[in-house]
Amino acid sequence: MTTLDFSPRPGAAPLPRMVLAQAGAEARAMLRNGEQLLLTLIIPVLLLVGFSQAALIDVDGSRIGFITPGILALAVMSTAFTGQAIATGFERRYGVLKRLGATPLSRAGLLLAKTCAVVAVEIVQVVVIGAVALALGWSPHGDPLWVILLVLLGTAAFSGLALLMAGTLRAEATLAGANLVYLVLLGLGGVVFPLTKFPEGIQPVLELLPITALTQGMRSVLENGAGFPTGPVIVLLCWTVAGLGLAARTFRWE
Amino acid sequence: MRAGGSASGAGAAVEISGLIKRYGRTTAVDGLTMACGRGEVTAILGPNGAGKTSTIEICEGYRRLDAGTVRVLGLDPADPTLRPRLGVMPQAGGVPPAARAGEWLRVVSRFYAHPLDPGALLDLLGLTEHARTPYRRLSGGQQQRLSLAAAVIGRPELVFLDEPTAGLDPQARHACWDVVTGLRDAGVSVVLTTHHMDEAEKLSDHVVVIDHGRVVAEGSPATLTGAERQLRFRARPGLNLDELLSALPPGSAAKESPAGHYIIEGQVGPQLLATVTAWCATEGVTAEDLSIERRTLEDVFLELTGRELR
């Protein structure tokens, strides 16, 4: 039998090493989980191909130019909101968050790791969706800086909502709720169905949804080459402050 | 085994005084006072619901106390500088079900400055061939061992193990005991809870029996079980012990517990043995499994906490 030196030599690793290790574990978990991949990659790519190839909706201009920014927004929502809410809800249920609380990784470090993991998966999504869209004839416009800003703000806004849900509801309720919200926002948020198809009265309400703000912001930059997307940025900022603020107050770690 | 009782004082690994923890109307811990010595193995015994896990979880910084004081390595349990110095094995769970055993242990090791080698630890606990197995597919015993590995990987000064051998087969139990012994030999303080009296007797320097959230007895296993010996035997249930008692020297005691098992306490020597066997002869019974033993920790435990099921 091996003998190990158990003599005490305690010490925390440097924060970047801890965060990187945890982020790697979370990213691997997301990319290995079949149901998560369905939401984060398969459904978005199928929608991208389906709605760009078949005349399911009538839009002005190219279908792929209209649909791709919406699918990128959907990808951000699927990872930052749906995937993160479900994963965190079950981590809470299985005592994983509690167990991590007994390690030198602080709560702030854990949240940073989760954010890094979400961004890493989003990079994979953008690469895959972007490649499929380019193959289908997509020609993006606009300043990539505004796209990155929108993706990061969208990630922050959806992460706040994900943690709010995962930190207060039972894991099963989070699972059901997060999938339902995904479907509802996919339908209402201008992702594949243009907002102009909805009754005029409810359009201003729909524009306040985080998914709509992200979709419209992405579309204004990538499809029309517009500058700083002021309106969407303000809406996403409000959701970020409200979501993260409420989550910080209500989150239960076990 | 070293004598216990040296646990109090400034050097204690854990010091608990007047601890109270309530959940709604239930008082789980009710004025508990105890100490765990540095470099010692302290076993906390108690029936289910006695307040063991609540006490341990307050020490680990998981739960807030309602009253009293708790000092862990001289610090408030919530002090973040304690985290790298403590190793924690929860009663169950704590690992993502889909995480592979080896990968997860490696991730945990990355949280510490001078971790043990995860591969060597898997090897020590017989988990090498399950390194790629997801946690949810491990057997209960394998899950427990992985959790134990994670508790010690950061080379902590103080380790809390909440029922470390619950559900383990004998081989795994011995592997776990080897780790606990190895920790103590290396100067690590260990606080564990258990339902196995033999485990407490074998492993610990100091035993604390708690019930209804209070300490009902503490000391080294030897002091708790006492020097007194007992004569035990089995025979048909329902023998009338009055006649035997009158024949025994004053101060002796005889009881049947459980049915068919007889225990005689007193000056256990040749005379007492002769009296008992003579009485058996007049009763026409053959005393089976006749033995003279010290009380076990289990006897002490049942005496202190009663036999009712909780």
Automatic annotation (TrEMBL), chain A:
Q: Does the keyword Transmembrane apply?
A: yes
Q: What is this protein called?
A: Transport permease protein
Q: How does it sit in the membrane?
A: Multi-pass membrane protein
What is the species of this protein?
Planotetraspora kaengkrachanensis
What keywords would UniProt list here? Antibiotic resistance, Cell membrane, Membrane, Transmembrane, Transmembrane helix, Transport
Q: Which family does it belong to?
A: Belongs to the ABC-2 integral membrane protein family.
Q: Which GO terms describe its biological process?
A: response to antibiotic
Q: What is the lineage of its organism?
A: Bacteria, Bacillati, Actinomycetota, Actinomycetes, Streptosporangiales
Enumerate the GO terms in the molecular function aspect. ABC-type transporter activity
Location of the protein in the cell:
Cell membrane; Membrane
Q: Which residues form the ABC transmembrane type-2 domain?
A: 31-254
List cellular component terms (GO): ATP-binding cassette (ABC) transporter complex
TrEMBL record, chain B:
Provide the protein's localization. Answer: Cell membrane
Membrane topology classification: Peripheral membrane protein
Alphabetized InterPro entries for the sequence? AAA+_ATPase (IPR003593), ABC_transporter-like_ATP-bd (IPR003439), ABC_transporter-like_CS (IPR017871), ABC_transporter_ATP-binding (IPR050763), P-loop_NTPase (IPR027417)
Q: Keywords on this record?
A: Antibiotic resistance, ATP-binding, Cell membrane, Membrane, Nucleotide-binding, Translocase, Transport
GO CC, sorted alphabetically, is: plasma membrane
Please tell me where this protein is predominantly located: membrane
SUPFAM superfamilies the UniProt entry points to: P-loop containing nucleoside triphosphate hydrolases
Domain ABC transporter, first and last residues per copy: 14-237
- Please provide the Gene Ontology terms (biological process) for this protein: response to antibiotic
The record's section on Gene3D superfamilies has: P-loop containing nucleotide triphosphate hydrolases
Cell membrane in keyword set: yes
Family matches, as PROSITE patterns: ABC_TRANSPORTER_1 (PS00211), ABC_TRANSPORTER_2 (PS50893)
Question: Is ATP-binding found in the keyword set?
Answer: yes
Q: Which GO terms describe its molecular function?
A: ATP binding; ATP hydrolysis activity
Enumerate the Pfam families for this protein.
Answer: ABC_tran (PF00005)
Q: Which domain of life is it from?
A: Bacteria
What protein am I looking at? ABC transporter ATP-binding protein
Tell me the classification of the organism that encodes this protein: Bacteria, Bacillati, Actinomycetota, Actinomycetes, Streptosporangiales
